[in-house]
User: Fold this.
Amino acid sequence: MKRTLILAALVALAAPSGAWAHASIEHVQPEYGSRLQAAPREIVLLFDEDVKVFPNWIRVYGTNGKQYAGKSRTRSDARFVEAPVRPLRRGGYTVRWQVLSDDGHVVSGVYTFGVRQAAPSVTAAYGASGPTRTEDAVRWLYFASLALLIGSLAFRLFVLPQNVPTAVEKRFYRIAGIGAVAVIEVGIVGFLLRTEDALQLPFGRFLFADLSPMANGTRFGIAFVVMTLGYALVSGLLFLGWLTDRRWLLWTALVSSLLLASGLSLSGHSAVDPGHSWLSDLADWAHLSAAAVWIGGLVMLAACVFPLAPELRRASFLRFSRLATGLIFVVLAAGIYLAFQRLTHLSDLWTVGYGQVLLVKIGLVCLALAWGAFHHFVARPALERGMDGGVVRRLPRSLVGETSVGIAILLLAAILVNARPPSPPPAQPTRASVR
Assistant:
């Protein structure tokens, strides 16, 4: 079976991929994300093959939605497309363009530039609506996938003994493998959703859009590329660990997964909002990582150890209980620090949308802490004494309940990541004293 899988993987890697036939953009003027000291007089696009353009297919929008571009046209060299631009004031501008390729596909794109100020992010291009509820759901699935991957790896290495029953080992690799594949696939969906919002295109034309301003010109895009490639490597390490039973491969996969998760902190609001620092980025990463290990460990207890290995239940629960104590401390410490940094006033908890979601999350965290306290102070002593009472028999269902609360917390965390914290009040000008 393992030899067949290796052969299939080699065939897949060796198979040639098809090439896109539509025109690709090679250069733009003004350049992506550029800051200009003087307003441009025209927009110029260069493609790798001849294209056609209709009069209104290049548009330049200000932040107020006003359109500044004139009629689009091709030059004598049909690879060049241009459109004159009316005088622009200081501000950020969005260029939305589309051309007709020789293969009949309409190729589209969007980028931004600034005149005497920084260009807005592509995700903030004119017409983009910002994160949607669909993106919140996708981010939640991403967090849950990370919990399956990171939590199962940490549980296998820190909680379970080196030699475990075959059934437990197989289920561990299934859970970790599902998490690794889901992180890649859900990440791709999240990137496409964010890019589709920036491009504002129907799906048929979105397939032939230029995604380079998003992938190369934003923190989100760069993090997506690095994390997707990185978690593909983690998937390979897991696969090799399953084939060879080499423990060091699992350690490498765990460390790599934790480091790659920092991309979420370095590309989110916490990395660009006023007042952020390396300490806030570190706290955000520690908060997510500790929560992932905790929730993923609960999944392993409930879905792997208790149903498949009765002889490991007591030792695994006691070891995980000790590990969870430290994880919850990190989650609480980092969460409290971030809350104080992102909320200007205590009243923001109930007067601002961000604070209201955070308040619900705090309530669920308190519920999870109470559940964990029950396991620590009631179930754990019973297991240590070797008792087999009603508390111990109901422990699997109790673990499922605590896991469900943890997954709900991840949903609220996903909403908070996509939301913008309240802006701090503007600084009041100081008045000179009169003598």
Observations:
- The CA atoms of residues 425 and 431 lie 18 Å apart.
- The first helix runs from residue 2 to 14.
- The domain at 25-120 is CATH 2.60.40.1220 (Immunoglobulin-like).
